[in-house]
Amino acid sequence: MKIQSLEDLLVETLRDLYHAENQIIKALPKMAKATSSDQLRAAFEEHLEQTRGQVERLDQAFEHLNLKARGKKCEAIEGLIEEGKELMEEDIDEQVLDAGLIMAAQKVEHYEIATYGCARTFAQLLGHRKVAELLQATLDEEKETDEKLTQLAESMENVEAAQAG
Ligand SMILES: [Fe+2]
Prior knowledge:
The chain is 82% helix and 0% strand. It has helices spanning 6-34, 38-64, 75-89, 94-125, 129-154, 159-164. The protein is elongated, with a radius of gyration of 17 Å. The chain starts with 5 loop residues before the first helix and ends with a helix.
């Protein structure tokens, strides 16, 4: 599809997000399995449930625009997920792995926050009020998840100190 208007850009962005969320649904269970932290596992599992709801919101957004819901390969998310996968294949200390998993997840959240934020603004500018509301609801969840991940990183025990002791 050739992007000529802001409307086209919005639709392409929704397709990008649709693909991204579906990739995240596949990646989160693997991340939950890889961590040895109950808290981090719970956070990944909770976000998996949230992500399923986010896909539903995208379905509704497509419906409002009278479009069939479909994704378009999002290279950025695939790259970020690949990075996380490589990390999980490393033979590393479990706490270092957790730190890396938090970073991988936050990179994904930041991509989503930027993309949902722009899509929400485009929808507002184009007068698609309902679509803007749906995107805002997901944006709020992504921001909350990002904050929770920061808290989890900050509450991690000092790995270096633990290893030295
Ligand atoms: Fe998401």
